[in-house]
Amino acid sequence: MKPHYAFTADHLQTLPPNLRALIGKHFADSRWAQTCVFYRRLSERYRRTLCFHAALHHRWCVYQLEEMDEMARERIVSALNELRSAFGLPEKQAQSQLLLSVRVLTLSERRTLFFHAGLSTQEFDQPLRRIDESDCQWAKALNRALGELHHLFAEAPDILTSIRPEHYFRPEPYSR
Q: What global pTM score does this model have?
């Protein structure tokens, strides 16, 4: 498994100026472009899911990453990284393994999965063991959403960044 990273303003602040300039010169453009292309390819539904996980108002899903302010970019890239960690490993999900897959998620990841599946808080508030019951009407939607998120993050770039390339060359530390 390859390591994945999300590069944010906090990381940039900790770098010495010369290293920051070196990264900016050789890597920043390609990392920024890959992150923007990945985000641009997402449908509005996936963007809504990201905004939900990042606790951003759904209006942010119509913006390109390049059009967002620093705060929104940071939250989107952090949400991408968190969800990639949770759903990044592509798996063939059998209905019988769904309960196990949902149980290992954190509460916020689970809430995001239910949101992506189009389920309400009524379903979210049900005991998880209901997923294995034969009369559970929302298990299929949950399984489909889990597969969609696994597929989405299989194509994500290894290094995501919320930092525009020109910010690497500021003489003072990057500030929000």
A: 0.86
Q: Longest C-alpha distance within the chain, in Å?
A: 62
Report DSSP letters for the chain, one per residue.
----EEE-HHHHHHS-HHHHHHHHHHTHHHHHHHHHHHHHHS-HHHHHHHHHHTT--GGGGGS-GGGS-HHHHHHHHHHHHHHHHHH-S-----GGGHHHHHHTS-HHHHHHHHHHTT--HHHHTS-GGGGGSTT-TTHHHHHHHHHHHHHHHHTS-SEEE-S-GGGGG-SSPP--
| pLDDT, tens digit, 9 for 90 and up, residues 122-135 | 999 999 999 988 89
Residue 160, classed as helix, strand or coil, is strand
Q: What is d(CA 176, CA 101) in angstroms, rounded to the nearest whole number? A: 37
- pLDDT tens digits, residue range 62-118? 999 999 999 999 999 999 999 999 997 655 555 568 888 899 999 999 999 999 999
**Phi, psi at residue 134, to the nearest 5°?**
-65, -25
DSSP-derived letter for residue 161 is E
